[in-house]
Amino acid sequence: IAGLYGLYLCFTSAKWQTVILAIILNEMAILGITAGAHRLWSHRSYKAAVPLQIILMIFNSLAFQNSAINWVRDHRMHHKYSDTDGDPHNASRGFFYSHVGWLLVKKHPEVKKRGKMIDMSDIYSNPVLRFQKKYAIPFIGMICFVLPTIIPMYFWGETLSNAWHITMLRYVFSLNSIFLVNSAAHLYGYRPYDKNILPAENKIALIACLGDSFHNYHHVFPWDYRASELGNIGMNWTAQFIDFFAWIGWAYDLK
């Protein structure tokens, strides 16, 4: 409800700077998932220097989809037990469940059982991710909600109501953008690489998730940092982000 009211405020009383900031922060938050939690930490499809890891950890905190450590555990389970009872957001249970329903109910016993078997040694040895996990509540809360609300108020005199509700709009939008990969990209689209799995190439979710919905390809070749055949560079902004940091030397060993 707060997000919907924020959308209304974007067209009525909010200052344009507040709207632009929300758009920028939304893209940063999504990159924190796609380039950070997903392609870097879950799949180790490239390596990142510490400064880039810190940037991605901050971006990931903007997204606030639990800590990156928890996100990686769930995603590794998702690939290992895709669309079975061992998959946290099993798409065979329908669109709503895989989109958001799995967060509203108790975990399936098989998810709890299989989660303990996932190798997370590389993640638990990462000091950047350990920091985020240790200080998750104050740090993620500050990055995701407090600062995006205070900045418009301090720098260009935005009202508290406008700043807060547009922050909530940005948060809800980034959540659903990533959730579309779990739901729409597992149910709708074409399957040129493996017709026997649910993940599909879904162009509807493509723009929202910055190139992470070439999903049939990704589940067949999860190690590819581009998560798409030949990069599909025109619509794969996450790959372009990684390529930029590879150019300056902060991303390397791209697979």
Automatic annotation (TrEMBL):
Cofactor: Fe(2+)
A cellular component annotation (GO) from this entry: endoplasmic reticulum membrane
Major location (coarse): membrane
UniProt keyword terms in alphabetical order: Fatty acid biosynthesis, Fatty acid metabolism, Iron, Lipid biosynthesis, Lipid metabolism, Membrane, Oxidoreductase, Transmembrane, Transmembrane helix
MF terms in GO: iron ion binding; stearoyl-CoA 9-desaturase activity
Domain Fatty acid desaturase span(s) in chain numbering: 15-222
Subcellular location: Membrane
Name of one Pfam family that matches: FA_desaturase
GO-annotated biological processes: unsaturated fatty acid biosynthetic process
Listed CDD domains: Delta9-FADS-like
Membrane topology of the entry: Multi-pass membrane protein
Regions that span the bilayer: 19-38, 50-72, 135-156, 168-188
PANTHER family (alphabetical): ACYL-COA DESATURASE, DESATURASE 1, ISOFORM A-RELATED
Family: Belongs to the fatty acid desaturase type 1 family.
Entry domain remark: The histidine box domains are involved in binding the catalytic metal ions.
Protein name as it appears in the record: Desaturase E11
